[in-house]
Amino acid sequence: MQRRLTGSASDPRIRARYRRETRFKAYTVTALFVAFAIIVAFFADIISQGYTAFWRTEIQVTLDYNERAERIGRFAINEDLREIVSRGAVRGIPLEIRNNPELAGTTHERWVPVYSRIDQYFKGKEALPPELEQQVLQLKEAGVIRSTFNWAFFTAGDSKLPELAGIFSAAVGSIFVLFVTLMFAFPIGVLSAIYLEEFAPDNKLTQAIEVNINNLAAVPSIIFGLLGLAVFINTFGVPRSSALVGGLTLGLMTLPIIIISTRAALRAVPDPIRLGAFAMGCSRWQVVRDHVLPLSLPGILTGTIIGLAQAMGETAPLIIVGMIAYIPEAPSSIFESATVLPAQVFTWASEPRKAFMEKTAAGIIVLLAILLTLNATAVLLRRKFERRW
Amino acid sequence: MDKKGFSQHISRQYNEDLEQIITRVMTMGGLVEQQLESAVDALVSGDQEKGEQVVTSDYRINAMEVELDEACTNVLARRQPAASDLRLIVAVIKTITDLERIGDEAERVGRMSLHLLEEDRERSPMGEIAALGEQVKGMVRGALDAFARMDAEQAVRVAQEDIKADAQYDAIIRHLVKYLEDNPKSVPPVLDIVWATRSLERIGDRSRNICEYVIYFVRGKDVRHVSFEQMAQEATGDRH
Amino acid sequence: METELKNTPTTAAETQSMADNTGEQTMGGKAVPEVKMQAEDLNLWYGDTQALHSINLEMYAREVTALIGPSGCGKSTFLRCLNRMNDLIPQVRLEGRVSLDGEDIYDHSVDVVQLRTFVGMVFQKPNPFPKSIYENIAYAPRLHGTGTSRSELDDLVESSLKRAGLWNEVADRLDTPGTELSGGQQQRLCIARAIAVNPEVILMDEPASALDPLATATVEELIHELKDNYTIVIVTHNLQQAARVAGYTAFFHMGKVVEYNDTDTLFTNPREQRTEDYITGRFG
């Protein structure tokens, strides 16, 4: 029997074809590998630099609330430990005594953070003068120096002292800003999209609006910052550096994203559903309310979350509207000066002191974790409500 | 109406199916004509050989009818014909039934011719019977012609010929009855002749049926059980 | 062969003569059928393109009228004129008159929402709302205020499902989403949904073209049963389906009604060569 199906294996043209195919596949795999390697390298670098910031070195000291300490907190500490204990840790003692006069003259055993250079020394990032090194090693031997989870990183605001600096005020700022962004961009974006998709006639005007909205999404974010500065601060007098002005500015930036993703979600609702509803005698409003919106809501929310995630990571326009200020205390309203996580990261990154390096990296880790969570929520939402029609 | 319309379907296979059915109906018709020719010949001239040939050949017509029936059933099942195609298939199914019956009648005439002796033949009105034979042969040929050309007007003319055939039949029967009254002893051979004559007359009726199917196909009108005037009107008039 | 278009049987006399010709089985010895909907000299343009040319068509009460014709012949467009679904398409211009029981449905005083409760519609692809079976049916009556109390709605849901021949299959799972039913069941659910509004006319746009033969048969059987209470106009690509379900059939071609006749006549002995060519599958 003549074998016709295997003879081609020796045909040079067919073999060349297979070779080309293999080569092409190799290119694609390589590209993927490179992309993946970059991501892994990035994460590895950030995490290796930043994870130490979640730990801090503390020292057990005896605080003596004596008369001198009523004026300057440092005097509450034994003299030879004054170089080791963080200055910021005892700064509050005079205030504490003033508020509670009965504390005067008492002593307390307490774990307090150490000076950042010593903290860095224990994390193996900085060297100490031999004398000091000797001393802290002895203290470590004696068990009065320990390493503990750095809760303060999450509960404290910014500080000029790296060992005390935290992301709390920036996180609160971010929440306020995103809240304002959401409140501003979501209703306007969704309603505009509904109008454009469900009600608007298809004419030159609506087409021009469409094109412009699509273009807006591609405008560099710093331009929105300038716009926010000009419109909100200079024209409407919104307080500079406040979460309100930041939120509104980011809202401008998020608006086109929400409009575009909402329109996509509305368009994904199959026409037969609309026609079916119309044929039952629904008015346009009833069709949108009862059929189109419920079906497109997951898509709308997904788009909104992605828009917010993008806004959350945005720095440039916020710098323009002054949200780069040093904010040690979390703002209590959207009208107060605030900063946001990426701006905080930016501030730390520009600090010359080495101890801020790990803070920067840790800030980035937190930011990434939040963004990943947001995006994962978006994906889950889409998965959960994805319908087959 | 385009009489060759069944060659214009988008499906070529459909065209071929229908054309083949028409061709086979014509072949069957030719065979029936031949059988009838031989049978009348055998009856009139007493040619025993021809008579036997007619009797032994009828199975071919029966076989063709079965084949054509099947072909028509297949077209119905596969194509769900509509309008003129549907009428064509219906007309074919009915036509082949009548052709098969004509074949049966011819066989019977052939068989009767074998029973008859020369003297029986001499005593019968063979001239009239031969004339009736010619008449119905002409009708069968005319009906098949009308079918081949899908010519409703010719179909009407052929159908009207049946009046003449009926009259000839009546005359022959009257003659034979009179003869029987005079010669009561020769009942058996005369009955054979009556049967043969009756068969010829039936062939005329069945030719007329075929003409009616042709009119049905062409005009979409059922002209069975109506007067000739009405039939002529339907066949020649406007389509509605 | 006629070259000029014969117009549709618009007068009672013509209709009657048609009935006489076709005999008992088609007209069942009924009197002149009552006209439920009527299009008179209906022209329709999409922008500059004329899609319908001077359509005259009568749809008889409690009869199934099928609209057949090649793609793009205007049959679906015409169907959508009957409940003004074309209103939803921009740039549609319409001239002529369409009436329901003699009332012009394009009169400016007519409320489209109201009209569509009289003239329901079922679409090509089953499109149940992604809600429960119960909600699919109860939705419109609740919306229009025809069913308010829970028990009223329960009764309405049950009777609609029964009329659509779906009750036995879904009675024990009214809470499951309508989209989880099989294709044929979904389409019958859509019909039940249309019935729930208690319309007088039901328009069907290729209601079985997305269904398998068995589901098609159930839908066709349903159409046959609904005919006793509703006037049905159905667009179909499937000639055999038109032949099976319709009492009257109109053949559309290039935006015109080429022939309108009772189904038996149209499918056995059409008057127009173009109809003949189309239904027998010849070159047009």
Task: Explain what you see.
The complex is a heterotrimer of chains A (389), B (240) and C (284). Chain A has 389 residues and is mostly helical. Chain A has helices spanning 12-50, 93-99, 116-122, 130-142, 152-155, 168-199, 204-216, 221-235, 243-268, 271-279, 284-312, 316-320, 341-349, 355-385; strands at residues 55-64, 107-113, 145-149. Chain A folds into 2 domains: 53-96 and 106-150, no CATH class; 168-385, MetI-like (MetI-like fold, Orthogonal Bundle). Chain A is 61% helix and 6% strand. Chain A starts with 11 loop residues before the first helix and ends with a helix. By secondary structure, chain B is mainly alpha-helical. Chain C has 284 residues and is an alpha/beta fold. A 6-stranded mixed β-sheet of chain C has the order 6-7-8-3-9-10, with helices on both faces. In chain C, strands 2-1-4-5 form a 4-stranded antiparallel β-sheet, with helices on one face.
Key features?
heterotrimer; A: 389 residues; mainly alpha; MetI-like fold; 2 domains; three-stranded antiparallel β-sheet; flat; C: 284 residues; alpha/beta; six-stranded mixed β-sheet; four-stranded antiparallel β-sheet; 12 helices; 24% strand; disordered N terminus
Summarize the structure.
Chain A has 389 residues and is mainly alpha-helical. Chain A has helices at residues 12-50, 93-99, 116-122, 130-142, 152-155, 168-199, 204-216, 221-235, 243-268, 271-279, 284-312, 316-320, 341-349, 355-385; strands at 55-64, 107-113, 145-149.
Range of strand content of chain A: 5-15%
Shape of chain B: globular
Number of H/I helices of chain B: 8
| SSE sequence of chain B, one letter per element | HHHHHHHH
Shape of chain A: flat
CATH 4th-level superfamily of the largest domain in chain A:
MetI-like
The helix/strand order of chain A is HEHEHHEHHHHHHHHHH
Tell me the radius of gyration of chain A.
Answer: 30 Å
Q: What is the gyration radius of chain B calculated from CA atoms?
A: 19 Å
- Assembly type of the chains comes to heterotrimer
